[in-house]
Amino acid sequence: MLTVETFKKRLVKANSLDWLHVAIDANNVKQFYIVVNGGMGNTISTPIEHYPPEIKECVIEMLFSGELIAAKKLPY
After folding, report:
1. 37, 18 Cβ separation under 8 angstroms
2. Which single residue of 7, 48, 49, 75 has CA 20 to 30 Å from 62?
3. HSE of 40 in the Cβ direction (CA atoms, 13 Å)?
4. Pairing state of beta strands 32-39 and 20-24?
């Protein structure tokens, strides 16, 4: 199971096999996804609700504190 500590460690691993990213739905800014390396050039996106609630709380806190930055939606 993913803990907040493990989540934060994996979030900063850019070129590692066990990296993860946080994504925001383009049509619903309240919907977050955790994107992980699926192997063989694939990624797996899972709604954040499938993870423990403290992971979503951590993401929201990181957004408010500036540790995570939401990119602006491009108009195309």
Report:
1. yes
2. 75
3. 0
4. antiparallel
11 within 8 A of 63, measured Cβ to Cβ: no
| Helix, strand, coil in percent for the chain, rounding step 5 | 30, 25, 45
For the chain, domain boundaries: 4-65
The secondary element (H helix, E strand) that includes residue 10 is helix 4-11
Q: What is the pLDDT of residues 6-61, one digit of tens each?
A: 999 999 887 888 899 999 988 888 899 999 988 888 999 999 999 999 999 999 99
Query: Among candidates 2, 16, 7, which has minimal Cα distance to 62?
Result: 7
